Amino acid sequence: MLMKPLQMHINFKTGEFNPNDRTNIRKLSDMKGMFSDSRAEQQILAKEDPIIYSFRERVLPEESGHLQLAVTSINPGRIGQEYFMTKGHYHQRPDTSEVYLGLEGEGWLLMQTEKGDFASLIINPGVLAYIPAYWGHRMVNTGSTPFVFFAVYPGDAGHNYGDIERTGFVRILVEQDGRPSLLNNPRWKK
Ligand code: M6P
Ligand code: ZN
User: Is residue 95 part of a domain?
Assistant: First the structure.
């Protein structure tokens, strides 16, 4: 498909971009069971339903040869000791990669393969992470301000949430003694 060249303007601080076609909001109720402390989740949901993150997308062809563009902003906060994070996903076409670029705030990128290999990177403004094909990916806000990052990935990559919704990531990122700390996730299964 022949497209016309395009440009957009990104506000690094807020993650807003123009023109943008779609804003997606993920509240705690959209992520039930994904944080490890289910009691803390229930206690918070009894009172409020906080926005964990939002991401804006430009609608582009979901075809090989094209690219998808998104800017995500994760709010600061925790459920129990576990920091606010994205759901995380593999790609429906698992042989596709992705680039994340930190724009504002600070966080960690957690990555894993279906076999259980695990890797993490600290992401600050200007840090670019290359997520190779076959690695599931999740971003986590470890700071006290919104964590904003840009993402670009192949047009036909798609999202596969299934396994991660059921068992989560190999490790969880929690605050311990005021610092981020990776713990094994007892729920994780190959
Ligand atoms: C980034 C990209 C998007 C993704 C979004 C939210 O912007 O990786 O593809 O949808 O983050 O992450 P998730 O889909 O895991 O909730
Ligand atoms: Zn992805």
Answer: yes
Q: How many domains does the chain have?
A: 1
Residue-range definition of the domain harbouring residue 82: 10-184
Report the SS3 class of residue 5: coil
Residue 62 lies in a domain: yes
Judge contact between 137 and 40, C-beta under 8 A.
no
Ligand 2 centroid–CA 91 distance in Å is: 6
Q: Could you tell me if 41 and 134 are in contact, meaning their C-beta atoms sit under 8 angstroms apart?
A: no
CB 82 within 8 A of CB 31: no
86 lines ligand 1 (CB under 6 A): yes
pLDDT digits (tens, 9 = 90+) for 48-77: 999 999 999 998 999 999 999 999 999 999
Q: Which has the closest alpha carbon to 53: 34, 66, 36?
A: 34
Q: What is the pLDDT of residues 82-138, one digit of tens each?
A: 999 999 999 999 999 999 999 999 999 999 999 999 999 999 999 999 999 999 999
| CATH label of the domain that carries residue 45 | 2.60.120.10
With 0-12 CB in 10 A as exposed, 13-18 as middle and 19+ as buried, what is 5? exposed
For the whole prediction, is pTM greater than 0.85?
yes
In a domain, 93, yes or no: yes
**CB of 72 closer than 6 angstroms to any ligand 1 atom:** yes
